Fold:
Amino acid sequence: MLEVRNLFKTYESKPLLNDISFTVAEGETICLLGASGSGKSTLLRIIAGLESPDAGLVLFNNLDLTNTPPHLRDFGLVFQDYALFPHLNVNDNVAFGLKMRYLGQTEIARRVTTSLELVSLAEFGNRKVTDLSGGEQQRVALARALAIQPHLLMFDEPLGALDRALREDLLNELRMILHRTKIPAIYVTHDQEEAFTIADRVLILHDGEIVRAGTPADVWANPHSAFVAGFLGLGNILEGEFLEPNRFQTEYGIFIVSCAHKHSRGDKVHLLVRPLAVKEEANVISGIVADVIFQQDRFKVKFENGMYIYLEAAPKVGEKISVRVKVECLA
Structure:
């Protein structure tokens, strides 16, 4: 098990990481999800041994690796730009890390074959990597990381250079490979769709801190804060004022909200209005339609007042409509 304990890191006197702690269990894939500058790549580099923390520990199976050089950690890294050697063929690229570990030729050949089979490139061993597509090159990079039989796999925006369809296919295949090999993994991305597809657990970073952690389903259902709800695009975020139990005043009217938080009259809160129509709901939002955008199997309807909703049928621009919606209290 990997344990990151109370990591701190500053750069030019500005905090990059602030008291970061989490674990990654055997066979578990966690995703570090955050915008650019949130600290996720710096955190990954510290775990890999490419940077040193100002304070804190990196442990694997209770062994302190904080000051251990990267090549002695036996962690596999996969980057967005593949980092393949263009003068080597596929077999030699996959074998590179094994040769650096002075394994015998028979063992190297066995691991190269096994790793390429895992990523569905068994027949590609003698090809030049420069002749491969982007998706195939990323598979070679993954095979190289798998070949060393790493204690931990780390991915830094690995699919960012691929088109959407290829990214989805490779993401699903990567998830199956991780489950099959049971290698613990850390996946860094700013793309929430990638994160929620591949992760067993999501850690959302903001300004160097973990602001929400949980399973994808739990984080989606219970964002816990206005920042997380906004970052994930879960819906309309409104400022409200507590009037009495289950009643909140907003600029759009009074909403009935089942709320487990303790509030006093006049307290300011954030409310989340999920953009899905709900038939059996007390709350109604109304507005004049400003724009209608088709998105896959539904329409995103924007109101002139800034609110938005998803509907199965498209209303006309300029039409005034009312829709029942679910409203939640974030805090």
